[in-house]
């Protein structure tokens, strides 16, 4: 979705709602493929649905480093704080500016795991869906759990994003009495 600078003539958008109250933005989003307009709430829902079906997706890292958001600020995924890192040292660009790479792991509302690299909080990021084990390991001492990160080869239950590596698939089967089966579809 992209935003336009001209408000629709009849304050009712194609989604059936009125535009978000005026501020520094236009108050509505426009689908570039169809030209249909929608309020930010409906646009966020459409983007969450698109995220569910995508293997690559472009979003924004919130300035507080905890969420991936849409342009208006709608929640797309939660950043796994234990897995975020600032890779490498600061590098100097040809113009004399400093540059740093940040890598982010996130989990969407459906349990899908995502990974992306960008320049830091508050900036755009292109994510790719990971096919990694969704088993979480507890560390204790108040530290948050971490994901296994082994390549997932087995699917438990029928949820599309409940993927496990060979070792944890057996543990999930014993723990939850799920039937484990090979992954039949790829994303």
TrEMBL record:
Protein name: Uncharacterized protein
Source organism of this protein record: Amycolatopsis acidicola
